Amino acid sequence: MRLAAALFFFFLSLAHVAEAGTRIKDITDLKGVRVNQIVGYGLVVGLNGTGDTLRNSPFTQQSVQAMLDRMGINIRGSQNEPRTRNVAAVMVTAELPPFASKGSRFDVTVSSIGDAKSLAGGSLVLTPLAGADQKIYAAAQGQVTISGYLAKGAAESITSGIPTRGRIPNGAIVEQDAPGAFSEDMPLEFELRNPDFTTAVRIMDVINEFAKDRYGMPIARAKDQQSVMIRKPPRMLSSRLLAEIGELEVDPDQSARVVIDERTGTIVIGSEVRISTVAVAHGNITVRVTETPKVSQPAPFSRGGETVVVPDTEVDVHEAGGAVQITRGANLRELVAALNRMGLKPLGIIAILQAMKTAGALQAELVVQ
């Protein structure tokens, strides 16, 4: 519980640091400037016996045969078909950066689609990467780097992380310019990553205050909760204007939200969450059932007696906690302190927050993952 309290107050300290301001370019995107997702199918070779089983992964065997055919090696119809486990079929995914030009490099992610055990030590063979329009924009190749590992023996194996997925830093080269281009005539419009009217108005005010001092005129207008439009001043380059605006700091508003992950016991409470006055009682009931079989034998020299097993059952019920406490969280710090005073574990806090929401005392959106 001390660790949970320490983590809560650690995040509180981060919240106070965040109040100093966030740069506009860190919470917005320029409309029309976007990444493009690309994907490809390829082979990772050079694995140390941890690749696909060709008998169970026919697509891997077909891919190996097709690759060797292109290199002038024909193994089709031979009596000894390849049974190597040094090859794995993979999907290669990446995000093509905006305005990427020919020759530029970017990272790719490699994921196994067969029954390979690990991609450690493997190299991706040249793989074309295409977009949703079926056009090839890049080609990937290189050494696969993974964060997990697999250690296997005769009777036991240990796996850490995900050894069947890895990355190739700067493993892709752009072969065709990315769609779209930046021009001085394109409209300038910032799109908020977390749409909110308050944040949009704050961004507009900060930009206009800067523009009045620099250009002598307001240039920003909040279009809606997601967009802030910018009017470029005369004889001003768009790139310089965006660079100057992007460095301006603003305090983004936060919605009152509580996010719960019941699988891991993770609880994230926003700083704007409020709790109405409510009485809370929480207790854990533990029921222990103990079976102690006993043997019953007949008296010596008795007739017709039988030896039987007589069950002996003991039931013990223990209830911990259960005290009723008045909880009222005027802010996040008081709410966390009240929950910690009750001595609750994460699962208990999750149950109480869900009950508070049902009772109408939790003045926030409850998101259960």
Report on this structure.
With 369 residues, the protein is α+β, with helices and mostly antiparallel strands. The chain has 3 domains: 22-32 and 182-250, Gyrase A, domain 2 (2-Layer Sandwich), CATH 3.30.1360; 36-174, no CATH class; 257-368, no CATH class. It is built from 6 helices and 24 strands. The strands form 8 sheets. It has a 6-stranded antiparallel beta barrel with strand order 3-4-5-11-7-6. A 4-stranded antiparallel β-sheet has the order 2-12-14-13, covered by helices on one side. The protein has a 3-stranded mixed β-sheet with strand order 17-16-24, covered by helices on one side. Strand 6 and strand 7 form a beta hairpin. Helix 1 (2-18) packs antiparallel against helix 5. The chain starts with a helix and ends with a strand. The model is unreliable at 14-18 (pLDDT under 50).
Give a brief outline of the structure:
By secondary structure, the protein is α+β, with helices and mostly antiparallel strands.
Radius of gyration: 32 Å
| Strand arrangement, major sheet | 3-4-5-11-7-6
Report the sheet-strand fraction: 35-45%
| Overall residue-averaged pLDDT value | 80
What level of helicity do the residues show?
10-25%
Enumerate how many helices there are, as a single number.
6
List how many beta strands DSSP finds: 24
Which stretches are low in confidence, meaning pLDDT under 50 for 5 or more residues running? 14-18
Q: What is the terminal separation in angstroms? A: 23 Å
The largest sheet is: 6 strands, antiparallel, barrel
From the spread of the alpha carbons, the general shape counts as flat
Class based on secondary structure composition and strand pairing:
alpha+beta
List the domain count as a whole number: 3
The secondary-structure element order is HEEEHEEEEEEEEEHEEHEEEEEEEEHHEE
